[in-house]
Amino acid sequence: MIGAGGTSILALSVLVLVEQRTISPIIDFSLLRHRVFLSANISLLLSLLALFSVNVLLPFYLEELHGFSLEQAGFLLTPLPITLAMVAPLAGRLSDRIGTRGLATGGLVVACIGLILLCQLDARSSMWAIIWRLVVIGVGRALFQAPNNSALLKSAPLKQQGSAAGSWQPVVSSVRV
User: Fold this and answer.
1) How would you write the pLDDT of the chain (177 residues) with one tens digit per residue?
2) Whose CA is closest to 119, among 133, 105, 107, 109?
3) Predicted pLDDT at 113
4) What is the CA radius of gyration of the chain?
5) Inter-CA distances, 110 with 27, 158, 166, Å
6) CA 85/CA 38 separation, integer angstroms
7) Concatenated DSSP letters of the chain
8) Distances (CA, A) of 16 to 12, 42, 162
9) Cα(85)–Cα(68) distance, rounded to whole angstroms?
10) CA–CA separation, 117 and 110 (whole Å)
11) How buried is residue 54: exposed, middle or buried, by Cβ count under 10 Å (0-12/13-18/19+)?
12) Of the candidates 72, 74, 140, 66, which has an alpha carbon nearest to the alpha carbon of residue 109?
């Protein structure tokens, strides 16, 4: 465990050194100087750590405590991504109209409430109790992620928005064909 942590820190340090010295870096660390970009990335990372724990822990709960098969457990997990897919486009449009800060904050609050509600499940909880809690988390994630991603991209300078989006930008050659 300690060795893996040390190796990770060493690899991250080497990555930063290499990326800062290359002409066309994959990761543009200068973007982290923008306060909104940095805070949007940190909040995204922390929210995903919390919210993806549902994807890791809930199958064990469904299979071990409720005795569901793998197929049943997988089926019971689908309300969250379905809700996310349905609400995220609406949240994106809404964030374009009203702004990103309040919507993203509200989305995190809803997602946190959903996680708290999910913690109240026990071995006697019904399928409906599981499903509606996952829907609450899905709504919260959608209300957070779409506006947060929008804020993240809008905070980057125009020339760096491709890097901010995580896309690869080819180096433009000065040679004409």
Assistant:
1) 788 888 989 998 898 888 888 887 777 777 778 888 888 888 888 888 888 888 888 999 999 988 899 999 999 999 999 999 999 999 989 988 998 889 999 999 999 999 999 999 998 999 999 999 999 999 999 999 888 888 888 877 776 666 666 643 333 333 333
2) 133
3) 96
4) 20
5) 32, 32, 27
6) 26
7) -HHHHHHHHHHHHHHHHHHHHSSS-SS-GGGGGSHHHHHHHHHHHHHHHHHHHHHHHHHHIIIIIS---HHHHHHHHTHHHHHHHHHHHHHHHHHHHH-SHHHHHHHHHHHHHHHHHHHT--TT--HHHHHHHHHHHHHHHHHHHHHHHHHHHHHS-GGGHHHHTT---PPPPS---
8) 6, 17, 19
9) 25
10) 10
11) buried
12) 140
Residue with tokens 């409720």: 66
